[in-house]
């Protein structure tokens, strides 16, 4: 079912011995999303990045901010290399490596 609900007066009385009026409900968000995604793949917006990113521009340390990663990424784009970076001011190295692994990015360039 997608949703359910009702009165649960007797349920509370069974566990506590007290008669307490109660109502409850649930909604199956996962079922709704699963249906919508399987029904129409067009609901998922197309990615605007290149089909395969070759390099993730990452950083280590506090002295490297997002502008350094943006600059190097821009230079790689001008040379035809598909690259990207995380849009966080100071992402942790582990998070950047996990992102590269999850997205099958074969190279990581660390600035630091």
Number of beta strands: 5
- Round the Cα radius of gyration to an integer and report it: 25 Å
**What proportion of the residues is helical, as a percent range?**
25-40%
> Average pLDDT value?
81
Topology pattern, helix = H, strand = E: EHEHEHEHE
Question: How would you describe the shape?
Answer: elongated
The fraction of residues in strands falls at 15-25%
- The helix-and-strand class reads alpha/beta
Sheet with the most strands, sense and barrel status: 3 strands, parallel
Low-confidence stretches: none
Distance between the termini: 53 Å
Q: Taking strands numbered 1, 2, ... along the chain, how are they ordered across the largest sheet?
A: 4-3-5
Number of helices: 4
Can you characterise this structure?
By secondary structure, the protein is an alpha/beta fold. The protein contains 4 helices and 5 strands; from the N terminus they run βαβαβαβαβ. The strands form 2 sheets. It has a 3-stranded parallel sheet with strand order 4-3-5, with helices on both faces. The model has no long low-confidence stretch (mean pLDDT 81).
